[in-house]
Request: fold
Amino acid sequence: MSRERILVFDTTLRDGEQSPGASLGVNEKLTIAEQLARLRVDAIEAGFPVSSQAQFEGVQLVAAHIKGPAIVALARCIDKDIDVAWEALKKAQRPRIHTFVATSKIHMEKKFRKGEDEILEMAVAGVKRAKSLCEEVEFSPEDSARTGLEFLLRIVEAAISAGATVINIPDTVGFAMPEQFGALIRTVRERVPNIHKAILSVHCHNDLGLAVANTLAAVHNGAQQVEVTVNGVGERAGNASLEEVVMALKTRADFFGKTTNIETREILRTSRMVSSLMGIPVQPNKAIVGSNAFAHESGIHQDAVIKDATTYEIMSPQDIGLQSNAIVLGRHSGRHGLKMRLMELGYQPQPAELDHIYQRFLEIADRKKEVFDEDLFALMSNETQETKETWSLAYFHILSGNKTVPTATVGLSRGEQVVQEAAVGDGPVDAAYRALDRMVNLPVTLQDYSLRGVTGGKDAIGEVFVRVRHEGVTWLGRGASTDIIEASIRAYLHALNRILAAQTASAPGS
Ligand code: KIV
Ligand code: ZN
Reply:
């Protein structure tokens, strides 16, 4: 029996990147886009080009390099947005402009001070302009789940008549209940007379923890495209998670009777790459990709799984790319072996970078006997940090103990100049951060600090994520090392360098 294929539209690089502090450099975007292509998503929303030069360049780079999936750029129903989106997209093999306008009463009144007719005119004009530039045009009535039904049906019909090839129904604020959202999709299918001329898509946010449930209810009621993000990252509580939606459709094909084109064995790799490049850790009990998702703790469960895995496993770990023999490299591995493994993990190390990466790899291999894929992800997230390093870590020395005042001496280099500061603190990390503050001299507050071992074992690499706040904006930093103090210093310094790089980029004449 052939099953209907549900199209997977990934918006990790656009809505996902709207997670606080999660901004990506353009090359990091390209690295993730390449991995999304290997995952075989149908569309990649690469950014919102009019919103900044970096967004424009990110979309342009992805459009120029990625073949296969449609490359999508977001634009409000405003001429300038649409023209800039097209400019960024035009080299894509399959470009798509995604234009949107808010249609709920509260958004129309408060954001636009416009009535339904004026909003409908904006939508039609936006879709027509996009269509004059690009064959594939997606239209979203923002906040659809809180939009009056009759107006929603009217604007969807008008957008299709104006040339939209995809209609996306977003639950922008994660307000809908699954039954209600499913019924809404069914109504759009049944009551919009020209709906068969467009692909019907859904885009759900997770404010009530229902994004995946709402997405699946929509599929069950006739949605043909799902808009999702890797690890469910996104604005506020995030978006529907790609891996959860895809694996639900696969595991319960008996219920949904649908399929996707996703290469599910790439799921775990993609999840780890996104987590480490965005600096957003995955919670251990996260469905599908959490470190506990396939771990069986109770003796009864373990015994049963040994007898027959399907007693407690509804999916095979191999299906998402989890391999039990994940040990890959060690101190005797050569440069070629390292390069091949990195390429399998989705990185394309350039010959000029490989020497440095190999040196870092040997340092890790010297401290650890076995180097796992997770270690390589952590290593590469240090290496692919694109922020221009104003300050680099030269050395550090820590004095700590339960009867000692924790003291840190840290040396930083900036070009030829090396500066040094010492400070005391509540603990060694606090002392080191105080020393860094004195040298870098940026008023920041540390909002969040998290440390995780990227693998099990006493010799695991520690990966540190920090969030710092500077002038009302959150910045994220990450660092990894087998020494957790070093990882902590690198993470904080990364965040500070990001702030300095942004200040330089926006300085007049730069
Ligand atoms: O959540 C939302 O409504 C969006 C639109 C731009 C589709 O992200
Ligand atoms: Zn959204």
Notes: The pocket of zinc ion (ligand 2) is lined by residues 15, 170, 172, 203, 205, 235 (CB under 6 Å).
